[in-house]
Automatic annotation (TrEMBL), chains A, B:
Domain named Aminotransferase class V: residues: 26-322
Taxonomic placement: Bacteria, Pseudomonadati, Planctomycetota, Planctomycetia, Gemmatales
Cofactor(s) annotated in UniProt: pyridoxal 5'-phosphate
Recorded superkingdom: Bacteria
Xref: InterPro entries: Aminotrans_V_dom (IPR000192), Aminotrans_V_PyrdxlP_BS (IPR020578), PyrdxlP-dep_Trfase (IPR015424), PyrdxlP-dep_Trfase_major (IPR015421), PyrdxlP-dep_Trfase_small (IPR015422), SP_NH2Trfase/AEP_transaminase (IPR024169)
Family, as annotated: Belongs to the class-V pyridoxal-phosphate-dependent aminotransferase family.
The protein's name in its UniProt record: Alanine--glyoxylate aminotransferase family protein
GO process terms (BP): glycine biosynthetic process, by transamination of glyoxylate
GO MF annotation list: alanine-glyoxylate transaminase activity; L-serine-pyruvate transaminase activity
Keywords: Aminotransferase, Pyridoxal phosphate, Transferase
Residues reported to bind substrate: R331
Keyword Transferase: yes
Modification N6-(pyridoxal phosphate)lysine occurs at: K189
C-alpha cells in the first residue's frame, strides 16, 4: 500500500531535496557553505517578502519563537497575546517562561481574533511592548488578518511578532508591506523540508528593541545570528545538510513564483472546503486558511477511529485534533509539496471510510464538488 | 578528484545513514516515531554508558550546553569553569549570558586542566554549585581526565557538567562509573550523523538541582524534555529524519561494540601521533585525545596555505586553528566513520604538500611510522 502524509507538518518533501540529504556531508565553515547560506537567505527573503535580515536557527519552530521572545523582551514588560488555539498557547507558554506581563485576547477554538479586538487591546494598553499573533492557527485551521493587525501596530511602538510557522508559503504573507516586525517560520511546512530549521525575519523597529534588551539567552539570542549572517555564517554549527536541502526546495518555490504558490494553495483550499460541505460535513474554522482544512467530526462518528481506519486501509495519514480537541476534528493539510490530485485522493478516502462506517454520504459527492470547485475560474 | 573530510565535526557519515535521510518523511507523533526514539534513546545510553535519562534536542551542540546551564543554575550562583581552549570559552560565554558567578581555572591553549587544579578550586569554593569541563578540547586536541574530575566532584554537592560533544564515542567515557552528572554531546562527531541533534544525559543528582531551579528558558528547559522522553516523545517537533538516521549510525556502534570503538580510535590516534613525530613535527596537545591529532605548524611554514594546498591538490580537508590559533595548528580528525587507511592517506597528503613547499621531509617517513605503530600490538 502507498502511504501519503497529510499532516500539517511534517509535510511531503520533494524527491530532489531528499536526494540532496543523501549526499556526503561538507564542512560548515567553508566558502562553499557560506555561498549556500547566502543563496538560501536571499530565497528566504523572497518567501518572506522582505528586505529584512532573515536568520537561520537549527531548532524546531518553537526555538525560533523562543528566540523572538527572549531576544526582544525584558522580564515584566507588557505584551498583548492574541490567541485562538494551541499555537497561541505556545506563545503564552514562552511568554510566561520569560516572565512577561501578558494581556490576553482570547477567542474559542475555531474562531479568529479580529482586528477590532486588537484595536481595543492596544488602546487599553498603550504601554504594550509587543503583540503576539499567529498567521495560521494550525490547531483549528483559522487564518488571521495579519495585514489589518500590522496597520494597527505600525501606528504604535509595539512590535508585531508573528508565528507564521505553518502559514508562510501556503497563504499570502507580506512581511514588509504588512509591517510585520518579527516573523518566525519553520522548515517542515510549506517550505518542503524535514523539521530541524527555524527562520526568523527581523526588521529595524524590532532590532532597535532587541539591541537594547538585556541578555536572556545564549543559543537563541538573535543578536548572535544577526552578527553571523552579515558574513553569511551561523554562530553555532548549523544543520548544514538541511540548509543545503532547503536551498533545493526554495528553488522550487522560486521557479513556481510566490504568487502562483499562494494561488495554488488558495485553489486547493477552496476545493477542499467545497468537498467538505458537499459531503454534509462542517468546517471547523470560521476564517479558514489555505494551508489546511479542518473538519468537525460529525455527531455519532468516532473521529480518532476514522483517521486510524483511513491510515490503515488506504494509507492516508491525516492529523487528529491535539490535546482536548482529539477526536473532535480532522486536520487535512494541503501545503507544500502536495497537489490537488493528492488532496482529491484524500477526500475520496475520507468518503470511503465514512461510508464504510455507516455514515450516510452519496459516493462521489465530495470528489465531484472538489473537481467542480477546482475547475472553476 | 575525490574529496575527504577530516574536520573535527562534521565528520563523514556512513552510506546507509545518508540513504536513510533520503527516505520520505513521516509523522513525528506516530507510534512508529515513538518506537524509533525509544530505540535511539536506549542506544544512546549505551554510548554514554549510563542508565540516566538521555534527552534528544533539535539544536547544535551549543544548544545542549545552553540547556545544561539554563536548566540547572540560577543567576548569581557560583560555578567553577575549567577551560583549556575555545570550547571551555563556549561554556564561559553561556555562563556569562545566564549571569552565573564564574570562578575560572584556565590553562594556556595546548595544556590540560589537571585534577589537582580542580581539587584546589573545590577547596577554595565549597559553595560552588557546578563544575564545567570539556572531555575533548577540540580547539587544541587536549583530552581531560574526567574520571579524576568525577572522583572529586562526587564528594561535593557540585554538579560535574561535561561538554563531551567531540569526545563521546571517540574516547573512553563512562558517564555513570565516572560520576558525570550532566553530559552533553552532538550528532556530528563520533556519532556519525550530520549536525542538528544534541543529546544530554542527566543523573538524579542533577535532576534534583534542575527541578528546584527557577524557569530560565523555554525551548531548552530540560524539564520539558524529561517529561516527554518518559513517553518516548519530544516536547517540540523534532528533526525526525535526523533521529531516524541517528538510529542507523548507532546500530553501527552497537555492532562494533563501544570498547572496540574506543580501541580503534586509540589505535588510530596513536598511529597518527607516531607519524607526526616521525615527520619531525610537533604535537600541540600535551595530553592528546584520540578523536583528533593537532599538529603545531613548524616555523617558516604558512599553516593556512598548506591546508588550502592539501585540499585543492589532494582533496583532503583538514581544519585550521580557530580564531587566534588560525595558521598556527593543523587539526586532523579521526573520529567516527573514518578508518586507519584514510588517516594514512591524510598523512601521505600532508607529507606531499610539505615536501612540495620545500620543507625537508624524507618521503614515506610519516606513513611508515603510521603503519609501524598501527601494526604493533
Amino acid at each position: 500500500m502507498k502511504t501519503r502524509l497529510f499532516t500539517p507538518g511534517p509535510t511531503p518533501v520533494p524527491e530532489e531535496t531528499l536526494l540532496e540529504l543523501a549526499k556526503p556531508v561538507g564542512y560548515h565553515r567553508s566558502a562553499e557553505a557560506k555561498a549556500i547560506l547566502a543563496e538560501l537567505t536571499e530565497d528566504l527573503k523572497y518567501v518572506f517578502q522582505t528586505t529584512n535580515t532573515v536568520v537561520t536557527i537549527t531548532s524546531s519552530g518553537t526555538g525560533g519563537m523562543d528566540a523572538a521572545v527572549s531576544s526582544s523582551l525584558a522580564a515584566g514588560e507588557k505584551v498583548i497575546l492574541l490567541t485562538a488555539g494551541r499555537w497561541g498557547e505556545r506563545w503564552r507558554g514562552i511568554l510566561k517562561a520569560y516572565g512577561t506581563n501578558i494581556v490576553t485576547v482570547e477567542v474559542p477554538y475555531g474562531k479568529a481574533v479580529t482586528p477590532e479586538m486588537l484595536e481595543s487591546a492596544l488602546k487599553a494598553n498603550p504601554d504594550a511592548k509587543a503583540v503576539f499573533a499567529t498567521l495560521s492557527e494550525t490547531s483549528t485551521g483559522v487564518g488571521h488578518d495579519l495585514e489589518a493587525f500590522g496597520k494597527l501596530t505600525s501606528k504604535t511602538d509595539a512590535l508585531l511578532i508573528v508565528d507564521a510557522i505553518s502559514g508562510l508559503g501556503a497563504m499570502e504573507c507580506h512581511t514588509d508591506k504588512w509591517n510585520l516586525d518579527i516573523v518566525v517560520t519553520g522548515s517542515q511546512k510549506a517550505l518542503m523540508l524535514p523539521p530541524g530549521l527555524a527562520f526568523v525575519s527581523v526588521n529595524d523597529k524590532a532590532w532597535k528593541k532587541i539591541e537594547a534588551n538585556p541578555v536572556r539567552n545564549f543559543y537563541l539570542d538573535l543578536r548572535r545570528y544577526k552578527k553571523s549572517i552579515a558574513e553569511s555564517d551561523t554562530p553555532f554549527t548549523p544543520a548544514n545538510t538541511l540548509i543545503k536541502a532547503q536551498r533545493a526546495s526554495l528553488k522550487r518555490i522560486r521557479a513556481e513564483g510566490i504568487e502562483n504558490l499562494w494561488a495554488r494553495h488558495a485553489k486547493m483550499g477552496n476545493a477542499a472546503r467545497a468537498a467538505v460541505k458537499a459531503m454534509g460535513l462542517e468546517l471547523f474554522a470560521e476564517r479558514p486558511n489555505n494551508g489546511l482544512t479542518v473538519i468537525t467530526v460529525p455527531n455519532g462518528v468516532d473521529g480518532s477511529a476514522t483517521l486510524k481506519a483511513m491510515e490503515k486501509k488506504y494509507g492516508f495519514k491525516l492529523a487528529d485534533g491535539q490535546d482536548n480537541m482529539k477526536g473532535k476534528i480532522w486536520r487535512l493539510s494541503h501545503m507544500g509539496y502536495t497537489d490537488a490530485f493528492e488532496v482529491l485522493g484524500a477526500i475520496a478516502a475520507l468518503e470511503l471510510v465514512l461510508i464504510e462506517g455507516g455514515h450516510k454520504i452519496e459516493p462521489g459527492v465530495g470528489v465531484a464538488a472538489f473537481q467542480k470547485a477546482f475547475a472553476a475560474k
